[in-house]
Specification:
The relative contact order is 0.16. Helix 3 runs antiparallel to helix 4 and helix 4 runs antiparallel to helix 6. The radius of gyration is 25 Å and the shape is elongated. It has one domain. By secondary structure, it is mainly alpha-helical. The structure holds zinc ion.
């Protein structure tokens, strides 16, 4: 029997999901487990960390894009009221655009995940024997003997056939599809939080040093977001800090140069 999805089978499974099947009953003894296993056990913690990390990256976007905007406008030496209006507009526009973008991308991801789950559920209803065989092969492919894989698959099919196919075949947790509204609002808040740093720096500092003070505030905050997101993702911190700072410096340098040039022409 052939199955159109055979090719994508198991390619999207990450390590976390593979192990998350072992959760039941292990909760109480998690602290006694060796570190990596204990962490894989806490799927909720992992997902919370992912959210936190997305928030930090959203704040990073807010810092860079707002900094570029306010420094560029300040470079054009406009009036205080023009600087105030355009800076606030930059933060609001950026935050809304982030929210809409995130909402759209999470919505379409959720739609396709739902469609895959429906397809899977129809398929299981129509041909449970095939579902069992498929699950057996997926487990076998992880290095389990054929007979044991068959037993495991049979038990999984009995308890929650769709859930087992969702996690082993599609790499989806049917109970944890991301809500697009949550994602949109979260990225908007993150962007505003980040954008308010250059906004406050440019508006509150004395006009003669405003660009310099904003530049320093932005570089320091980008170093912090770089280090924090690297820490959450267990990546090298220095490299991340240098990368985020470089991006911010480039954005400000380019927009300041353009702002100064345009300002001189008016
Ligand atoms: Zn299937």
């Amino acid at each position: 029997m052939t199955h159109p999805e055979e090719g994508v089978v198991a390619t999207r499974n990450n390590g976390q999901r593979e192990i998350s099947g072992q959760r039941s009953g292990g909760e109480a003894s998690a602290s006694a487990l060796p570190r990596p296993l204990a962490e894989a056990d806490g799927g909720e913690i992992a997902s919370r960390l992912n959210w936190l990390r997305a928030g930090v990256m959203g704040a990073n976007d807010g810092i860079v894009s707002t900094a570029g905007m306010v420094v560029g406008v300040a470079g054009a030496a406009v009036s205080d009221s023009a600087l105030l209006a355009s800076s606030i507009a930059a933060v609001v526009a950026g935050a809304l655009s982030m929210a809409v973008g995130e909402y759209v991308s999470v919505s379409s991801q959720r739609d396709s995940e739902r469609a895959e789950l429906e397809h899977e559920s129809r398929q299981l209803a129509a041909n449970p024997e095939y579902g069992l065989e498929q699950l057996t092969r997926l487990i076998e492919a992880k290095g389990v003997d054929r007979s044991l894989a068959g037993e495991v698959a049979a038990q999984l099919m009995e308890r929650d056939a769709l859930g087992a196919h969702a996690s082993l075949e599609l790499g989806i947790d049917p109970n944890e599809l991301t809500n697009p509204w949550h994602a949109g609002v979260a990225s908007m808040i993150a962007f505003v939080a980040g954008g308010s740093i250059p906004l406050a720096a440019i508006l509150l500092s004395p006009r003669t040093n405003a660009v310099l003070i904003t530049g320093v505030a932005v570089i320091v905050s980008l170093a912090i977001t770089g280090v924090v997101s690297a820490h959450l993702g267990r990546a090298p911190k220095l490299r991340a800090a240098v990368r985020t700072m470089t991006g911010g410096i480039l954005a400000m340098a380019v927009t300041y140069a353009i702002g100064s040039f345009v300002g001189a022409q008016i």
